[in-house]
């Protein structure tokens, strides 16, 4: 699956580099986007930054499917109950976890500095933790890790001057069929991404003391 589908002309690379605090403060959900393709190098950089997210035992269960093809976006919109941000955005990043792929290739995630011993240890760790669980159970654990990457992705995008809207309002079965994904994968969400063509709602959050206990 290539992220370069149907993109012939593209705007210049972003020169924006917001701090983490600036990215957090200026990220709001955007549902209308400027009608221009994503710069493909920016897209790759955002995904590379996202891939630096941490995960338990470095499992990196997240996988990305980048949809830029107009026809496929139309179909994705149908699977998302007609939500217009899917086709308004130049790209939609589908973030999902594939725990079965993670388990099958677990040696890849052992730190190279630990050599063969590390690879064997990594396999033992995962077999011990997940060997007795069924696919759905361990898939749920995989999703908790992919959700971390989903958060990183929104902030990485914002730091480079892009806007997004996280989405769980879609039919997962339909999205699996559209993208040819295996039955066992679990979705962190869809993420339309592009440059904002509206301001979105100002952030509205609980007061910190409403949601925090200090001990
Ligand atoms: C996991 C998740 C799923 C969401 N699903 C949708 C969705 O399907 N459609 C939509 O328009 N917004 C969706 N949202 C956006 C939320 O409505 C939005 O993040 C929330 O109201 C806070 O607003 P803000 O993102 O502008 O700060 C979702 C947000 C999250 C985190």
Automatic annotation (TrEMBL):
This protein's UniProt keywords: Oxidoreductase
GO molecular function: oxidoreductase activity
KW Oxidoreductase (keyword) present: yes
Transmembrane parts of this sequence: none
Family to which this protein belongs: Belongs to the nitroreductase family.
PANTHER family: NAD(P)H NITROREDUCTASE YDGI-RELATED (PTHR43673), NADH DEHYDROGENASE_NAD(P)H NITROREDUCTASE XCC3605-RELATED (PTHR43673:SF10)
Name of the featured protein: Nitroreductase
Organism: Deinococcus aquiradiocola
């Amino acid at each position: 699956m290539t992220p370069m589908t149907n993109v012939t002309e593209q705007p210049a690379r972003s020169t924006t580099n917001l701090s983490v605090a600036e990215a957090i403060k200026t990220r709001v959900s955007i549902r209308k986007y400027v009608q221009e393709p994503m710069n493909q190098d920016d897209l790759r950089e955002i995904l590379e930054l996202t891939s630096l997210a941490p995960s338990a035992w470095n499992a990196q269960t997240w996988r990305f499917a980048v949809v830029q093809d107009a026809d496929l976006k139309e179909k994705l919109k149908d699977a998302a109950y007609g939500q217009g941000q899917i086709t308004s955005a130049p790209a939609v990043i589908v973030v999902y976890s594939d725990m079965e792929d993670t388990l099958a290739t677990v040696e890849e995630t052992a730190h190279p500095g630990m050599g063969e011993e590390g690879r064997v240890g990594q396999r033992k760790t995962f077999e011990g933790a997940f060997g007795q669980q069924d696919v759905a159970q361990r898939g749920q654990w995989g999703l908790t890790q992919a959700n971390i990457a989903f958060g990183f992705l929104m902030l990485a995008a914002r730091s480079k001057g892009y806007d997004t809207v996280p989405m769980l309002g879609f039919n997962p079965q339909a999205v699996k069929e559209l993208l040819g994904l295996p039955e066992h994968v679990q979705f962190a969400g869809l993420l339309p991404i592009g440059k904002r063509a509206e301001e979105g709602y100002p952030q509205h959050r609980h007061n910190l003391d409403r949601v925090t206990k200090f001990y």
